[in-house]
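Lab notebook, bench 4. Continuing the backlog of folding jobs that were queued last week. Each job is logged with the same field layout so the records can be merged later without manual cleanup. Today's entry covers Periplasmic chaperone for outer membrane proteins Skp, a 171-residue chain. Filled in by technician R.K.

JOB TYPE: sequence-to-structure
TARGET: Periplasmic chaperone for outer membrane proteins Skp
LENGTH: 171
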Amino acid sequence: MKKIIVLAVVAIMGTAATVNAQKIGHINTNDLLMAMPETKKAQDKLKNTQDSLNVVYGQLIKEYQEKDSVIRVDSIKWTPAIKQIRFKEFQDLADAVQNYSTQAQQYLQQKEQEFFAPVQKAAIDAIQAVAKANGYAYVLSRDALLVVPTTDDLLPLVKKYLKIPDAPAAK
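JOB STATUS: finished
OUTPUT FIELD FOLLOWS
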């Protein structure tokens, strides 16, 4: 019986030693993504998309404001039938502005996902390649942790892997 207990303790100690021998690293993925040139390209594409959507939205708003001015000034002269038609047109335009705004936001979110997904995938792939090449069993996301255990920061290694130059020190 004592031999079994001793063997169990030795096995547990061996397992604990194996677990302790595994390397753990961390990385701030936000810092990595912001350092990647692909992020800037994705941001520029998203900004261009947003600007083009804003042009159309601006045109709709201008048309809405013009119709509003016409209604305020001329509606006194209109017959009830004309008033009804004009107010219906105005309400339809207001609905169109609202629908466009909602659809534009959804489209922009879709494009954001489309533009940034490859950048995020490249970052994850690089982190995994660096972790594997350097023998890290676990890599923790620094931006999700409040307290970081004593681990290695993989950000410089991943930047080197991706050939991203270090930013000059702030003065």
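OBSERVATION: The CA atoms of residues 8 and 14 lie 10 Å apart.
SIGNED: R.K.
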